[in-house]
Amino acid sequence: MREEDRASELLRSAKLALERQGHATPALDARLLLQAAAGLTREAMIADPDRPVAADAAARFRTFIDRRLKGEPVSRILGDREFYGRVFTVTPATLDPRPDTETLIDAALTFMPADRPCRFIDLGTGTGAIALTLLAERPLAEAVLTDISPQALAVARANAERLGVMARASFIEASWFAGIEGQFDLILSNPPYIPTAILPTLAPDVQDFDPRSALDGGPDGLGPYREIAARALSFLAPQGRVIVEIGEGQALEIEDIFKAFRLVPESRWKDLAGHVRCLGFTQA
Ligand code: GLN
């Protein structure tokens, strides 16, 4: 009978294979996939790195590593992705929440005092990562979450259940503001902003596994901002703000788009890499 594999041995060979392919975080990827395959916590793995791994778990791990070697992101293999300290379900219908988007959370929270109610809308919510994180952080807030994709909205609903914020969330299948009513203290969005012609140059784990509809911003990548800017003012409460995530180098053009619809650029927020990642606007 074959001896059981040791966790450390499985990790070492997986890490080498991933390294050889030039993956950015081979040790982390291997560890997360082994934890999932073997049903182990991080603490358990650290406490006993040489622990034996049952044959079925080891086989599952090897399948996970094969998928990773073919470019599939860890989050898609696991169906889970951490964002702002909470875990979200992801599916092929949703954009993987990115660390860059945590910039938008920090920005929005500065306008959401913890002791005051706040009503906001998240346009193109996907997994719901933005809106649901804010609801979890601010117990008095209420949110409308929209997406054009019913599959994505189903994922957002599941995540709302998972985070225990369902009672304060409404879900609307809509393209931007279509069919939306009322006024909001915050209008938030991380819309698709990649110019169509650039899509084929994106890394395989983005290009092959994120939904195109969540990436493709049209010929110049700015189409969704024009749609949002054109109607945002009529949905904004008197002291309200619009905050959007943007792509690298898009700040000036997007500020011009909003200015044309009487929304005044107020703030810029940088991501950890130092790129302007979010823009904030107020009423004139
Ligand atoms: N930040 C994503 C990327 O660069 C794009 C997400 C978007 O278009 N909103 O892959």
TrEMBL record:
Record's protein name: Peptide chain release factor N(5)-glutamine methyltransferase
Keywords: Methyltransferase, Transferase
EC identifiers of the protein: 2.1.1.297
Annotated organism of origin: Taklimakanibacter albus
Lineage: Bacteria, Pseudomonadati, Pseudomonadota, Alphaproteobacteria, Hyphomicrobiales
Highest taxon above the source species: Bacteria
